[in-house]
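User: Please fill in residues for this 180-position structure.
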């Protein structure tokens, strides 16, 4: 049986683990999970090194960016979860339901895929958002056959965990809510 997962917010204390995970084969090091965070000015510079620097700046400034999943002390997964106000261009309904947090991206190390880790990342994100005072966790998954936005997760996984559809954003992304 695989060792139990632990989850930790990304901070200056474990930013090296975040960099290690994002340096792994197949990791989203091209964007460093800045796709929905970058300001208009930051979007002008599309280099991976710039995205890396932008994310490290947010972490240094103690901005909530997400959680790392650890197994046997090694980082094996990532979920981007933070107040919706930390992102831009996500869509979804206005934030009239109280503090809304957004889950925008997940990454699982290649050796850990197909182990159910995505569901655990979603659950940990919900727990983390609830503990931080959020009343709703909003996610933007796609259908399993979608050719893009797959890093945002798949609708059936969110449905199994109690998320409900509240709309669509564009042609592919569903907007789903989990009351916390």
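Assistant: Residues filled in for all 180 positions:
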């Amino acid at each position: 049986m695989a060792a139990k997962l632990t989850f930790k917010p990304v901070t200056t204390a474990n930013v090296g683990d975040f960099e290690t995970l994002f340096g792994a084969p197949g990791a989203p090091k091209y964007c460093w999970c800045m796709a929905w965070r970058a300001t208009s000015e930051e979007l002008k510079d599309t280099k991976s090194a710039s995205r890396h620097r932008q994310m490290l700046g947010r972490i240094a400034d103690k901005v909530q960016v997400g959680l790392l999943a650890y197994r046997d002390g090694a980082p094996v997964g990532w979920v981007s979860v933070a107040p919706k106000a930390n992102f831009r261009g996500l869509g979804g309904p206005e934030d009239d339901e109280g503090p809304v947090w957004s889950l925008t991206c997940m990454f699982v190390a290649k050796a850990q895929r197909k182990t159910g880790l995505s569901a655990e990342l979603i659950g940990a994100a919900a727990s983390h958002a609830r503990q931080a005072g959020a009343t709703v966790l909003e996610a933007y998954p796609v259908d399993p056959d979608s050719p893009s936005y797959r890093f945002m997760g798949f609708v059936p996984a969110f449905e199994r965990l109690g998320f409900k559809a509240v709309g669509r954003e564009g042609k592919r992304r569903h907007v789903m809510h989990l009351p916390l």
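For context: The chain is about 25% helix and 25% strand.
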